[in-house]
Amino acid sequence: MLITHKSFSQTYEVKGTVYDSTGTKPVPYVSVITTNGNGAITDLYGNYSIQLRGTDSIWFSYLNKPTHKYAYKDIKAPYSFNISIKMFIENLPEVKISPRNYRQDSIENREVYAKIFDFQKPNIHISATQGGVGIDLTELINIFRFNRTKRMVSFQNRLIKQEQDKYIEHRFYKGLVRRLTGIDDDSLLLDFMELYKPSYLFITQASDYDLFNYIVKSYARFKKHLLPSEMWRNGLGLSN
């Protein structure tokens, strides 16, 4: 009986890439959900990784369109569980596309995941009443729901990290970097941007001039095959 219980409680990793219906283009920001309540989101390259139990199932959701559920026991290759999803755009009317506004994207993202962003770790609140000392029973119960709290905090941190990455990409984008460095080769451009991607701390405090200066000086270091330190990514040492 002990062995059986252990097999039910043990967790496993499933990871892979989500592609569009052609199976060639990775799809970012796809929600990945398990029946145990764990959640993840695909990164800019469509990659994801999530933990689940042997009795759980996993499914994917994009633009509020969920896939069917895949039972873990039926997944043959959990470390390369790649899927293609339908984008649901075939019948949309023709529209003029305007450049996306980062602030609007951020607001929409926080509205969709409001429960996650607003989640707070439970604390015991003790209040004095005429009848004595009172304890919030709901919060007391939530404190002992360790797994749920851990999952919610982990998902919340992941959403915050992705929001920060999107803001960095909003300012540190290909067109700007290409103009300032003169890099024509797309592969070289991506290598440089990946290696010298500035920190969120720097990007939130830097003026346009500071950012331009960072890009130009970073490219000079890149051509000398110098690797950036964490201090450099934070904008320290640019005056040298």
Percent helix: 40-55%
Could you say how many structural domains there are in total?
A: 3
Low-confidence runs (pLDDT<50, min 5 residues)?
1-7, 89-99, 124-128, 132-137
Level-1 CATH class name of the largest domain: Mainly Beta
List the helices and strands in order.
HEEEEEEEEHHEEHHHHHHH
Question: What's the structural blueprint in terms of helices and strands?
Answer:
Elements: H1 2-9, E1 11-19, E2 31-34, E3 39-41, E4 47-53, E5 57-62, E6 65-66, E7 70-71, E8 83-84, H2 102-112, H3 114-117, E9 126-129, E10 132-135, H4 137-143, H5 146-171, H6 174-181, H7 186-195, H8 200-205, H9 208-223, H10 230-233
Parallel strand pairs: 1-8
Antiparallel strand pairs: 1-4, 2-3, 2-5, 5-6, 5-7, 9-10
Structure description:
With 240 residues, the protein is an alpha+beta fold. It has three domains: 2-84, Immunoglobulin-like (Sandwich); 104-168, no CATH class; 172-233, no CATH class. The protein contains ten helices and ten strands. The chain has helices spanning 2-9, 102-112, 114-117, 137-143, 146-171, 174-181, 186-195, 200-205, 208-223, 230-233, and strands at 11-19, 31-34, 39-41, 47-53, 57-62, 65-66, 70-71, 83-84, 126-129, 132-135. The strands form three sheets. Strands 2, 3, 5, 6 and 7 form a five-stranded antiparallel sheet that branches. A hairpin with a 2-residue loop joins strand 5 and strand 6 (65-66).
